[in-house]
Write a structure and sequence with these properties.
There is one protein chain. This protein has 290 residues and is α/β, with parallel strands linked by helices. It has a single domain, classed as Ribonuclease Z/Hydroxyacylglutathione hydrolase-like (Metallo-beta-lactamase, Chain A, 4-Layer Sandwich), CATH 3.60.15. The protein is 24% helix and 24% strand. Strands 1-2-3-6-8-9 form a 6-stranded mixed β-sheet, with helices on one face. A 6-stranded mixed β-sheet has the order 10-11-12-13-14-15. Strands 5-4-7 form a 3-stranded antiparallel β-sheet. Helix 3 links the parallel strand 8 and strand 9. Helix 1 packs parallel to helix 2 and helix 4 packs across helix 6. The longest helix is centred in the C-terminal third of the chain and has 13 residues.
Amino acid sequence: MNPDTNPHVHSLFDTQTCTATHIVFDAPGGHAAVIDPVLNYEPKSGHTTNKSADQVLEFLATNNLTLQWLLETHAHADHLSGAQYLKKKAGGKIAISKNISAVQKVFKVLFNLGSDFPVNGKQFDVLFVDQEEFSIGQLQAKAINVPGHTPADMAYVIGDSIFVGDTLFMPDVGTARCDFPGGDATQLYHSIQKLLSFPPDTRLFLCHDYPPAGREVCTHTSVAKQKADNIHVRDGVGEAEFVALRQKRDSGLEMPYLLIPAIQVNIRAGALPNAENNGIRYLKIPLNSL
């Protein structure tokens, strides 16, 4: 592949949520996309801060990059999105899969968000459909549906790289859980096979890393390494074996500790709930429902 078509990638890692944010750009002085930005949140106090997003802004400024896209791989349950803050500070369009509407419908009911909360994805600037092509400056990109973790998971193919969200982790960690509303282990298996059908040297950039003791954080791997070593879905693991393994593991997992605040913000494209008549914004906690 022509190197000029391949992206430059700078990755940042938020240690509180183990989330990787990727800044993808065509060249210094060119255009950039930020994939899965983080808004820092302290659950004990309910305070939000912009430490992680400010690191993104610093990199954009240092490299004289124009922010064109804020790309979400899905509505995250483990961190709040920093997309709205970055859009306000640096511009760009916030994009996600068109299937976000299925996620919004579920959580509108759970959080009793009322008739004025739209479930058609209009909170986002762009809703991608499967195989939709777009550009990041001089880079050509494609959005592909990879459901299973949630119905609205999307990966972004940019040159020799794919930004896979929560479908895959590092080979020694495995794959994403499928027990959230609309999750499906069979769908995840087929989504992963779609990703692993790309050339062996394709770079796979991950949304998270949870390294075992003794290994440092790593935010990308390759198709070849996943096919050889992934503990859940390496070559030779069939659909039935994977689904049984994934369902067994999911049955014993705790909910992510930021799921309740994260989902309420992320189905709003990273916007906080509107302030009430006392000027304070509130997040809801549904009791005995999850």
